[in-house]
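Task card 7
Instruction: Convert sequence to structure tokens.
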Amino acid sequence: MLPKRKSTFTGFHQNARIYPGGIAMKTIGFIGLGTMGKPMAGNLLKKGYSVTVYNRTAGKADELVALGAASASSAAEAARGSDVVITMLSKDDVVLETVFGEQGIALGLHPGQTVIDCSTVSPETSRRLYQEFATHLVDFLDAPVTGSKPAAEGGTLVFMVGGQEETLDAQRDVFEAMGSKIVYMGPSGAGSYTKLAHNTMVGINALALMEGLSIAAKAGLAADQFLEVVQAGSAYSKQAELKGPKILKRDFSNQFSVQWMLKDLLLASEAAEQFHMPAPMLHNATDIFRMAQERGLGELDLSAVVQCYEDWMHLQIGQAETPLHPGEPQLLAERRRNTRLQMNIGLHLSVYQWEQEGSFSGQLIEGTLVDLSESGMRILSSFPLAKDMFIVIHFPQEAGLPPVTARIIRIDPDHGQFLYGCLLSGLPPHVRLKIEEYIRIKSE
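Output:
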């Protein structure tokens, strides 16, 4: 644990506004005016703070300047004239570059200032910044938020804060201008750990909503009525409240994007590995958000991941599960179930034979994945195998897939080779989804 250090805040900057009664308002440098940062800075202005803003894309500051903010030409300039510097940036390397890079925050700091990082970054990055700033008598808090865009606009964000509690107490007025709840979590890095654990639950809850909606859709249930039950029952969650209506309206405008949720889940996965703890739901959620990113949904709201589920079940949420042509329901339903993804991917197959009691012999043979359907795979090989034999399928290393066990249920001769129909055995749903996504990418 890092040693406690008294807050170094010694007074207000010379540019601080003086209000009736001789009360001085802190000057704020706000850096990062994206989906969250822009409304947060706007709320500081509304509460009467003198705010200087900086963003790498200068045009994002125009609306705030019209509201009374000053515009800085660099992060260093925004920091130089401020009592408190707030950053709301995308990821670790961007935060570090903004602090230590050319014309970065570090060049504009002076003793007595406080830097508050509201970005979601690794705890290691937060602790590094705390230690670096401490050598310059500058206080630092890692204070990521939850609440997404609507809460940022309404000033109802929840802050989870790590660092010296005395520093938080000295800056509580600044936090209260942007949020409705401020929770002190512990020493430097504790805020970042809290955010990663929190967003693990957010990602999993969002996918639980999408899977429930998908099951309801395949059963022919009305999506709006199903969502009404969810919001009134034990399955209720904030994600159901926020994302359910967006899914039904096909409104994937960004409140919190797929790419940033994936970034947070990857950071959480790193933390779980450091703790040597299993986190199966976290890893499955990470896989699905990665698929959505690879599908091109990265800049959309995380609710857009439902499009992956819709692809997998060949049905859009909110649409009835009905045949395209009256009179052919069974035929079309069967065709939909047996839609095959065509491909030509090289595989290796482990084949085991029973030798005698208590022993097997095995060998590795080559094969080609011909196609994949919901019921299994078809694999082409020149090696003769027997019906009902179990094989282990090894995908190319680039796929990042585990070995898959299958049973041969059909054998068809094919120009001197054998086309094996294989039934997949005990395949976890997330592995099937990864296989389908890998094949989709390879087939494009």
